Amino acid sequence: MNKLFKTALVIALGSFVLSSCNNKDTFDYEGEYLKQEQTLDSLLSAQKVKIEAYKNEFMPNAIEDTLTNNFTYLNKKVKRGIWYVVESQPTDNSYSYSLNATGTAITYPKLKLKYTARLLDDTIVESDVVGTDYNLGVNSTKITSIWYISFFPYSIKFNANDIILGGLTKDGLKKGSKFKVITPSYYAYGSSSQTNIPANSPLVYEFEVLEITN
Prior knowledge:
It is built from three helices and ten strands; from the N terminus they run ααββββββαββββ. With about 210 residues, it is an alpha+beta fold. The strands form three sheets. The chain has a six-stranded antiparallel β-sheet. The protein has a two-stranded antiparallel sheet with strand order 2-3. A two-stranded antiparallel sheet has the order 7-8. It has a single domain, classed as Roll (Chitinase A, domain 3), CATH 3.10.50. The chain is globular.
């Protein structure tokens, strides 16, 4: 996947893969795109009710993400359905998210991080209470799209241009940041079940950044 926009599904539906497409000229690509947009639209709509009920009870001060998915074939835009709370501001603002010298890829940070992930019934399904090293540029089954959405800033500057990354905050998470986010399953594990996580499960993540470096 293009490293600059490893979070492409953060911004658009480009990574909502057409798994059933083939090379035959007669294949109805538009019909398949429409079907997949309808599926995702229905999923986000159904999970919206559960997510907002959790937010109202446990995170009443949560901020709604206002970025949208552009459903081209349904001819509408739909909010991503993410809510978040900045629980603690950074204690060190020296780290800066940036692109490489040619502007072709983002420089992915290395992290020392505590985190938990919960189902909406408050069951803890993942936990790192000690603090472990993670690298956002290295593939990991634990690092789902919501990590990038949470950590990356909304945009970064390159040659005086704003490069939109689609993160939730202006400057991104840094050392000392404590951050809580509720995400639809689409930006977590999607339709794939994990050991303790049923398929299509919205999740609540809490991140505490202990260190962040290039």
